[in-house]
Specification:
By secondary structure, the protein is α/β, with parallel strands linked by helices. It has one domain: MoaB/Mog-like domain (Molybdenum Cofactor Biosythetic Enzyme, Chain A, 3-Layer(aba) Sandwich), CATH 3.40.980.10. It is about 45% helix and about 20% strand. It contains six helices and six strands, in the order H-E-H-E-H-E-H-E-H-E-E-H. Strands 2-1-3-6-5-4 form a six-stranded mixed sheet, sandwiched between helices. Helix 2 links the parallel strand 1 and strand 2. Helix 2 crosses helix 6. The mean pLDDT is about 95.
Length: about 170
């Protein structure tokens, strides 16, 4: 089966949880989280939950464990905490949870970022993978990074990814 055939059999609506990790934002100023929710909804996906936590490993892992336990959530999209500043800890938490990594996501994200912002893209620790039958995407916290990741990488594959995880496609 071709990629196009796989995508044609993929669900059009995926249940997503949005998590923002930030020491400086609140729900009123979480522009990246708002953009994720807006883009998901505009593309027919369902936002089944949202949280904003400080960049504290225990808080991040608490939300992620709840997401992994929830039957209604298929995908978790996280923004924030992927840089190299001392308080940036999202990468470590997410990486430790992943059963299968989607290395291509980080590689492609940094490549596309490089085209937009130059060599600073190498400092992004965007990461994605699968655990507990759910996909997790961890993005930088800037609106530009969120827009790039969603528009160019995540949204085009979200249904296909969910189908692969849940066996909703015919085997080729």
């Amino acid at each position: 089966m071709t990629v196009e055939e796989h995508k044609s059999h993929a669900p059009k609506n995926v249940a997503c949880f949005v998590l923002t990790v930030s020491d400086s934002r609140d729900q009123a100023t979480d522009y990246s989280g708002a953009l994720i929710k807006e883009l998901l909804a505009a593309n027919g996906h369902e936002i089944v939950g949202y949280a904003l936590v400080k960049d504290e490993p225990a808080e991040i892992i608490g939300v992620l464990r709840a997401c992994l336990a929830a039957r209604t959530i298929q995908v978790v999209i996280i923004s924030g905490g992927t840089g190299i500043a001392p308080r940036d800890g999202t990468y470590e938490v997410v990486s430790a949870l992943l059963e299968k990594r989607l290395d291509g996501f980080g590689e492609l994200f940094r490549f596309l970022s490089f085209q937009e912002i130059g060599s600073a893209a190498m400092m992004s620790r965007a990461v994605a993978g699968v655990t507990g039958g759910k996909a997790i995407f961890s993005l930088p916290g800037s609106r530009a990074a969120v827009n790039l990741a969603l528009q160019r990488l995540i949204l085009p594959e979200l249904g296909h990814l969910a189908a692969q995880l849940h066996g909703h496609e015919s085997k080729s």
